[in-house]
Amino acid sequence: MKNFLLIFITIFFINNSAFSAGTRDQASALLERGIALIQIDKNRALEQFVSGNGGLVIEDLYVFCFVTEGTLTAHPALLGYNILSNPDIKDENGVQLGVSMISNAKSGVISEVVYKLRKYDTDSEQEYTKTTLYTKVSDQICGVGYYSD
Hints:
alpha+beta; two-stranded antiparallel ribbon; five-stranded antiparallel sheet; Beta-Lactamase; 149 residues; 4 helices; single chain
């Protein structure tokens, strides 16, 4: 009975989190938590961001990080991808997303960037408005993005 209950709760959580949209407040809180974890133990934090262990995935929110050369060091689906290799994803000012974030990330300051992106966890090609809150922490640029439509 315990195993059945555990499986039911896990499936319920996964199914509901896949279709629920995280909020700006949740994204901000998750980023703050991610910053604190990196300051304590960067390598362990990056591993947790990839796995989602420890409650580091909330609704459709997750922490991602990359180095200034553009390589993602933490992401639930695109680990190792270089964000500078995709010139098609641009911020609302027409600047390539990775370039925009690298240029504007500052330690101790939460910045935001708005862009269009399809939801990576669906098969749909529809693009949505996404806002990412991000900062520089250690040698990483880390962020959490949320969809506003």
